[in-house]
Amino acid sequence: ALSGLARMGAIIEIVTQPAFVWMFGLATYGSYVVLWAAVNVLSTLTTLSLAQGLQRSIPSAASREAEHGVVRYALLVTVIPSAFAALCITLAAPGIAPQFSVEPAMRPHLPALIALFVWTLPLTVALEIATAAARARRAFGPEIRLRIFWEQIARLIVAVALYALGVRLFGLFVAHIVSLGVTAWLSVRLLGRYYDLGLLWRAPMPPALRHDTLKSGLATMPPNLARRAFNDLPPVLLGLALSGGGGAVAAGLFGIARKIASVPLIVRQTFLYVLAPLSAAQRAADKAQIAPLYRFANRIAAIIVLPLTAVMIAGGDATLLLFSPEAADALPVLVVLLVGRAGETILGAATPIVEMTGHRLLPLANSIAGLAAAGLVGWLTVDDMGATGMALAVSAGVIVSSWA
């Protein structure tokens, strides 16, 4: 139950995102979605999937010192490169900014905005590793406070305050940075609850530990990259492909549909958060007991997600109007994404089990199959159907990668 609550941030986002659109406008919201998605893609690269790797490495660590060494190495090998990447992008921001489509009022300020916003990258990475380390200790509850209250509610509070003060163009971006900074700081305190910070600072990291930790993360990197590509690349590509404010508006519409369609994924994320550490531990005890665990998760997911998806499709037009009248154009995109996410949720219970207990090449094979399916469907449909075609490509890709 706690792991499900820990992902209730997706529901809170659906409540807060309409407020952001009404306060700051669809074009500004679209630009925010593009930059946020770009940071998410980069964070998937720089975390090296060690957030998932920790679920495998920490339960199998031979000693308390080894556990702390794994966490220390994961933080060093992810946060430092993320900060370096942020510095490089900050310096290159004047050359990067012209590639993105934004509203005219934002254009002269975009380089400075990119240079500032990209520093959410190391904050995001530090937060991911810290919460993953706590999760590896079977501590799901603390993420409720971090992911729901501090990251989501605090963002809304700061955004409303800035809007009231008249900060309209950049208020949403600043609110995101502030809330993420507070959450990252609190994640350090979270580490202190489940690990000795002094030992974490000096824990040994022998070559074998570094090799095994890195290998456990890289083994799950292909499916993580595929999931991130399905979730975040579409708005980024729209922001890069279309000229003027049209790219920002299109990215905003896709972002709205994506947020609403993420509700069925709460069920999937619940099982993903629990099944990853449980299957890793069960693998060491009795691997034969993993199959009943999968069947139970699969049936529960289907029972919950099928009626939920049907209700959301029926009320899709009304839900979109909560964002803005312009958002009604995203209804076909929403329907396609909801169907795809439902299929991914029903089939997706196998993903964390394969990642934690299966052959290390299986996640790579599944990801390649999903990306190939998405590429084929996109090639056949995007030219004629636009954003709906992109939604079809994403849905085909996530279903194939979950089923393969």
Question: What would your notes on this structure say?
Answer:
The chain has one domain. Helix content is 81%, strand content 0%. It is globular, with a radius of gyration of 21 Å.
Quickly give the structural class.
mainly alpha
- For the report, how would you describe the main beta sheet? none
- Residues in helices, as a percent range: over 70%
Which percent range describes the beta-strand content? Answer: under 5%
General form: globular
Total strand segments: 0
Condensed summary:
Helix content is 81%, strand content 0%.
Please tag this protein with its features:
404 residues; mainly alpha; 20 helices
Helices and strands in order, then pairings?
Blueprint: H1 2-6, H2 9-24, H3 26-46, H4 50-57, H5 64-96, H6 110-117, H7 120-135, H8 142-164, H9 171-194, H10 197-202, H11 207-219, H12 221-241, H13 246-261, H14 265-285, H15 290-314, H16 316-321, H17 331-347, H18 350-357, H19 362-385, H20 387-403
